[in-house]
Amino acid sequence: MKLNPFCMCCAINKQEKKIRDFDDADRKTEYMKKVMELMANAGEDDCAPSISIDLKKMFSDFWEQPMEDYSSIKKEFNQLMLDLEPSLEETIRNSDDPLKTALLYARIGNYIDFAALANVDSATVLSLLNEENKDPLDENEYRRFREELASASRLVYLTDNCGEVVLDKLVVKLLKEFYPELAITVIVRGFPAINDATMEDAEEIGLTEITRVIGNGNDVGGTWLPHISEEARKLLETADLIIAKGQGNYETLHECGLNIYYLFLCKCEWFQRQFHAHPLEGMFINERRI
């Protein structure tokens, strides 16, 4: 998805908000000029997640502050979801359609996003998971998804956040049971990106014990095709089916034309406007039918 005016303004406003309480007005003006210069020089292949990483690095260098460390937050939410995993798996397996239910829970886990939301807390995660009236999956897309799974040979699963990745593991586990001939590869971020899942998280929550997992070779909060590893790109280009979690994967992949099923919550205003959705409404949409 190309960088758009709405997301550009949002990024600029976020930078101003970060420095609003700083004292030196001249220094703040100088910084905001650099922010706008970065925006003005954005490349054709840039997108909101790639610009976000550039801004974080620029903020750290300009203000001589270390990059934010989310390692303790990631461990906290990984453990929260690991503690819930047995009971959630039991609920999923006892449902009328375990795969559909697993996808619903995996989508709810997309709430754990410190890049898109100002406040993320465990109480809200638990409330969303326990909510009876979850937004259903689009029935037509789910039907086509199951039809395509039946004939697919290779599936790639693109993860998003820590904690959420435990719920992704339950989806992968069911896919492997229901489609034993399906070759599944999970792709996580190649390097730390906010609270996104990396190989360290995949190992910590046991995902690497049930399927092949690789990093994408990049630190952008999504799957930025021009800059991921050749291995990751080839896997995506040759996959029959791709499941992509989160807004960042949509922002980096939309318009690529691959057979992607996006699974995410609408957490920011642009997504809510784009899909006529209420805050945190769930989406299950296909790249080729948007």
Give the key terms.
single chain; 290 residues; alpha/beta; Rossmann fold; 2 domains; 6-stranded mixed sheet; 6 strands
Report on this structure:
The protein has 290 residues and is an alpha/beta fold. It has 2 domains: 5-63; 70-286, Rossmann fold (3-Layer(aba) Sandwich). Helices cover 51% and strands 11% of the residues. The protein has helices at 5-19, 25-40, 48-63, 71-93, 98-108, 122-130, 139-151, 164-178, 199-204, 230-238, 246-253, 269-274, and strands spanning 154-158, 183-188, 212-215, 241-245, 260-265, 282-286. Strands 3-2-1-4-5-6 form a 6-stranded mixed beta sheet, with helices on both faces. Helix 1 (5-19) runs antiparallel to helix 2, helix 4 runs antiparallel to helix 5 and helix 4 runs parallel beside helix 8. The chain is globular, with a radius of gyration of 19 Å. The protein starts with a helix and ends with a strand. The model has no long low-confidence stretch (mean pLDDT 96).
Lay out the secondary structure.
Elements: H1 5-19, H2 25-40, H3 48-63, H4 71-93, H5 98-108, H6 122-130, H7 139-151, E1 154-158, H8 164-178, E2 183-188, H9 199-204, E3 212-215, H10 230-238, E4 241-245, H11 246-253, E5 260-265, H12 269-274, E6 282-286
Parallel strand pairs: 1-2, 1-4, 2-3, 4-5
Antiparallel strand pairs: 5-6
